[in-house]
Amino acid sequence: MAKTLRTSDDYTIKTGTGAAGSNTVFFDSKTTRVMGDLVVDGDRTELNTSVMTIEDKFLVVNKNNSTADTEDSGLFFNRGSENHAILYWNANENNFELGTTNQDPTTATTITNYTPANIKVATEPTDANHATSKNYVDITAASNILIASDDSSIISLGGSTDTLQLLGGRNISNTAVVGADSITFDLNQVLTDITSITATGANGDLTLVTNGTGDVVINDTLTFSAAASDPAADTVTKIYNKTAGGGGTGIFFRNSNIGSGAVDELISKSKATALAIALG
Fold first, then answer.
1. Over the stretch 118-131, which tens digit does the pLDDT of each residue have?
2. Domains in the chain: how many in total?
């Protein structure tokens, strides 16, 4: 038979000496419903339920902390005989941390014994701000490296086993990563094992410049290929090779300040000797 107890003021149930005693009030029923607010005063509250359903949209942890953000707070997960799993806010570091600890959640205000744990996330992110897996980062980082050569062919590096190798021996003295996106290769030293240098620009010059009063030094044979035609006269001396003429050398030069820019040939020793004899 249903019964209703109504009072016009506070209603108190006491057992023994109250909170300091050892007596307990039991509600033995299928359902206990509290129509108003439920306030529990005590250091510890235990809910022995297999599934707990909470209608609140937000849970407030460490509610009574009224000071600056100096106390760690979060969730402990019971793992039986193993250390607790924990997801908490690290007040000292100002970030969330996930891991395990052997500290007691009833006494811990600062997590001091903590081992970080791994977190598993979706392999491929669907948003720029999503976390992703290490495997996805490795594959994506490698597959995004495209190397284009001057003939427009492209080499793509993909997979963790592909290697970008730069050959050049002593000619590459240093490699340095600048920032996060660029790599600098330093060739500021003596070049060795170079068999050909070609200027690729249309009718482009290849210029060798020394430092200060230094000279361009050639220690071995200097070979001239036959020129297709005489070069244009200029204020600098141009030396070139073509079919030998009266000078008997085939080495010609041209300078707009010499002989009004006329083409002339260096004379050989035998030709010079013959001319000297002929001219007496």
1. 998 888 888 989 88
2. 3
